[in-house]
Each structure stands twice: as structure tokens, then as C-alpha cells.
Amino acid sequence: MNYCNQCGASVIRSIPEGDHLPRFVCSECHSIHYENPRIIAGCIPELDNKILLCRRAIEPKYGLWTLPAGFMENNETTLLAATRETMEEANITLESPSLFSIFSIPHISQVYMFYRGTINSAITGPGTESLEIALFSEAEIPWNDLAFPVVSETLKLYFEHQHNHDATFNGAIIKTNDQLITRFY
Q1: Neighbour tally for 102: CB within 10 Å
Q2: Selection from 150, 80, 149, 148 nearest residue 115 by Cα
Q3: What pTM does this model have?
Q4: What are the beta bridge partners of residue 105?
Q5: Residues 178, 152: contact at Cβ < 8 Å?
């Protein structure tokens, strides 16, 4: 950040009075500009014991497979962001999506929230951000061609849960710093 979004003056990086972290502070109006983690919301689309994945048509990780997900926009809930991204990337809607996992990844200042739900619309083809979409059983998942570690981890947790618990799970798994800390059921 170079300029204040309140008055347009230049900003400096300093620790504001009463704070403990460096922030961008306007040299003129003294507005403090906070930087916060970005939230990525996505879905685990299910159909007939398979998971829908999207092959990325955009960078980063062009051509690799992922769950439909993306950055949350202002003025939307995490569920709305997840379902919007699923529609944008896979042209599908889900029946009764429920929160499945939350990952906090501090070294990249991101929080991932994945919902799971049954596909309840026709699968017509990829959205504009995907080269293709496909349904995969656990044995068919292209593990070596997944775009992001958090997608791989989410799928591993999903299948672990499928093997060890009731398939009608309605809860959330929360991870932070790569340590499982809480499971909600």
C-alpha cells in the first residue's frame, strides 16, 4: 500500500499507539489501514459416491485439479461465496450444503472454508474458470495433479470421514497450523 484510501496521502509502516503490530498509517489523516487474512470458500460437490473436481483454467496452478473454491467477496456469507464459486467454476448447484472443514493457514494469511453437499442440478460442463469438470471416486482422484495442498488435505479428511463415520455427517473439521484441533458433529 502506498496511499491512504481516505485522503490519498502517502502511508508509512509503523506501530500505532496502543497496538503491537506494524500497520500502514496515513502520514496526513492518520487513518490506520489494517491487513487481514483472506477467506477462501468452496464446496465438496457429491454425486453417487463421487466428488466433482474442476481443472483450473486460470493461474495459479493452471491445468491442475481442484475443488470449486475462491475468494469471498464483501457483502456475502461464506456459504454464499462457496455456492457462487461452485456455480462459476462448475455450473452446478448443491442441495443443503453444510460446513465440512475450516483450515487456518497463517503463513499465507488465508482461511479456507469448505462446505459439502449433493449436486442437485444437471452437470452441463465447466464454468469460465475451469477447463473441464469430472466426477471422481476416491480411487480415481488425481492426487498428484491437485492444485493446492489444502484441497488434498480436505479430500483426505473427507474420505477418512467416509470410511470411519456415518456418511450423513453434518458438522465441521477445523484445522490450524496443520494440527487437527476440533471436530464438530
Answers
A1: 19
A2: 80
A3: 0.83
A4: 110
A5: no
Structural domains present in the chain: 1-35 (2.20.70.10), 38-184 (3.90.79.10)
Q: Which three cell numbers stand for residue 125?
A: 460442463
Range 50-79 burial, b when 16+ CB lie within 10 A, else e: bbbbbbbeeeeeeebbbbbbbebeeeeebb
Between CA 68 and CA 77 the distance in angstroms is: 16
3-state helix, strand, coil in the chain (%, to 5): 20, 40, 40
For 22-39, the pLDDT digits (tens) are 999 999 999 999 999 999
Number of residues that this document lists for the chain: 185
* Tens digit of each residue's pLDDT (9 = 90 or more) over 123-152: 999 999 999 999 999 999 999 999 999 999
Q: Is the four-CA dihedral 142, 148, 154, 157 of positive or negative sign?
A: positive
